[in-house]
Amino acid sequence: MAVRDLTATVDGDEAMTAGEPGEQAGQLESHGIDYIPEEERQGRARELFAVWAAPNVSYLSLVVGAAMILMGLTLVQALAVIVAGNLLWVLTGVLAVSGPAAGTTGSVISRAMYGIRGNKVMVALTGWLISAAYLALNWSGASVAAIGLATRLGAPKSPVIDGVIICAIAAATLVVSVYGHATIMRLYSFLSVALTIVFVVVSGYVLAHTDWSYRPAQSLHGAQLWVTLIGGFAIIASTPLSYGNSPDLARYLPRDSKPRAVAGWTALGAFLPSVLFTAVGALAATALNMSDPEAALEGILPAWFIPVFVIAVVLNTVANNGLTAYSAGLALQSIGVRLGRVWAVLIIGIIATAMTLYALLVFDFLTSVNTMLELVVVVTGPAVGVYVADIWICRNRYDGPKLLDESRGSTFWYDAGVNGAGVTAFLAGALTGVLCVSTSFWTGPVSSLLGGANLSLVAGLVVSALVYVALGRTRRRAAVTKPAA
Fold first, then answer.
1. Model's pTM, two decimal places?
2. Is 221's pLDDT higher than 60?
3. How do the domains of the chain map onto residue ranges?
4. In 3D, which of 36, 98, 113 has the Cα closest to residue 396?
5. Angle at 438 between CA 436 and CA 442, to 5 degrees
6. Nearest to 188 by CA among 307, 308, 43, 39
7. HEC string of 36-83?
8. CATH of domain 7-15+22-105+130-375
């Protein structure tokens, strides 16, 4: 059998023996980044639909949709951008197919692209540091809504109460992440239905107030219109590109699971609710002042339903951050930190909780974090481009046990632990993204020439993929047709 997870000793979980059934909901997951043997795999690809639907039946979708209208787009233009940007969920689905093929996490599979040592740097940046920022941002948004509800119900305004609410939301999230894969699969099936019902009710009230004849005060034309359309596309598409963890959730599926089914159910589960509720946000902005979305939506909802809506916002954040913290814990293991999965999850959770507390109770650092996240696509776009290209190059043939072999001279050691093709392709894509990006504090020279159009997402993604395909001969030789026993 392949390398076992350190959780078996550090977390005190007993390792399952060959022939036992797979992970069960309500039990601590015993696996981490280790190889999942075929006899422990179970489930069907269609179960991924609910897992990806629950995080994307989202209050954030309403806010982002409203932003499309606030940017000056017409309703038709906003809806077109929403659909186009969300099409990039297809790439999240493509990444997912490597999970069943390799039987391990995406943060380990990427060793094939960057080498054992090179991958540690990549995962630390794209799979851990950025995850902490996203956790803090999502928890902050949900906490503000929950604190507002507590005040409305008569709770006194107090930093202590605020801190308790923040920690409670974080704790609920970490419980989900700590219990792991099987619990996530079961719980999210329920959450996807419950959240959809609540947000459909919200959508009904929004539709009743929608101004179907809406026109922006000043119509956009020519270069200004294209700059806005491209900027809106980048905002929408940045969400699917931030989810490089789809292999982590698919790795328990049998190895012979059909790649089209794995990719399709993953992409569809995220695409449908994202399009629907982002569009609802755009519709809301035609008649409501969505510069303060929480107040605007609560203004049209009946008083009895507002607590239900806020609870749904909190549950959605738990679902969203539950996946993020789960994969961030696995990423920490893949970097080489010798901790079990549970402790790895708790560490990232404690760091992000501290960031959230500091943001809401001490100093508003979220402006700085939001500015940093404007540049996220410069990193996540090229990372996804390299990953998708690698799946194509090796025809999705991954050997999980070999990927877990970190010894010198192993298959994925390459040159001094670094795969030059992957690193070069990533850096080429990131540099292209920097040249083409347009943010509140930096506009690249290419973007300046194009009137401020933010082409960083598409340019970085495409360039990194093309460079990797051109340089990826080493990966073709390393590809195998069957994993080691």
1. 0.88
2. yes
3. 7-15+22-105+130-375
4. 98
5. 105
6. 43
7. CCHHHCCCCHHHHHHHHHHHHCCHHHHHHHHHHHHCCCCHHHHHHHHH
8. 1.10.4160.10
